[in-house]
Specification:
The protein is of the alpha+beta class. It is 27% helix and 27% strand.
Length: 177
């Protein structure tokens, strides 16, 4: 836990203006406040208790531009020298709109989380992925993911952006690709 806190502290100090106010809903779509959801993970106060929780906190970190957390939660053997630059470019070019967890299966030390992250980059799109996670020394890490085809959305379901409106009345005029 101290490792993540040591990495995150300088980021949080220099990028606090991008952080979600603690009284607002968490970007991960949990319907909880950021303070009671992903913030303790981002601040290094807690470790994710499940791979699903880590996945949600990583989505929130993408949403908030928390590159240090994203790197700290990639398994050390999977980290690349250009991770910071690649993540910064992705974050700069992408507006994250919502997260939908499709499926989660977990054993004591391994897990798979299938999710769809909706985003805007010129047009509305989907990142549909089946991600692999591993737990080492009591901490979950992201390993890698398999990209999957976009899911089909019903125009009458609630919009992925969390507006509370149906897709047809919100982002429905632009089909996610």
């Amino acid at each position: 836990m101290l490792y993540i806190a040591a990495i995150l502290h300088p980021y949080i100090e220099h990028n606090i203006e991008k952080m979600t106010p603690t009284s607002q809903l968490c970007p991960c779509s949990s319907n909880r406040t950021y303070q009671s959801c992903c913030q303790p993970l981002h601040a290094g106060q807690l470790h994710a208790s499940s791979a699903e929780q880590l996945m949600c906190s990583r989505y929130s970190a993408f949403y908030l531009g928390n590159i240090a957390y994203l790197i700290a939660t990639i398994h050390p053997h999977q980290r690349q020298d250009n991770d910071e630059k690649t993540l910064a470019q992705t974050i700069k070019q992408t507006q994250w709109l919502g997260l939908k967890i499709i499926k989660h299966s977990q054993t004591e030390h391994a897990a798979i989380v299938e999710f769809v992250a909706f985003f805007q980059h010129e047009t509305v799109g989907q990142l549909h992925e089946k991600s692999r996670f591993v737990k080492e020394d009591g901490q979950w890490f992201y390993i890698d993911g398999e990209l999957l085809p976009p899911i089909k959305l019903s125009r009458n379901e609630l919009c992925f952006c969390g507006s509370g409106k149906k897709i047809k009345k919100c982002h429905g005029n632009v089909s996610p690709k």
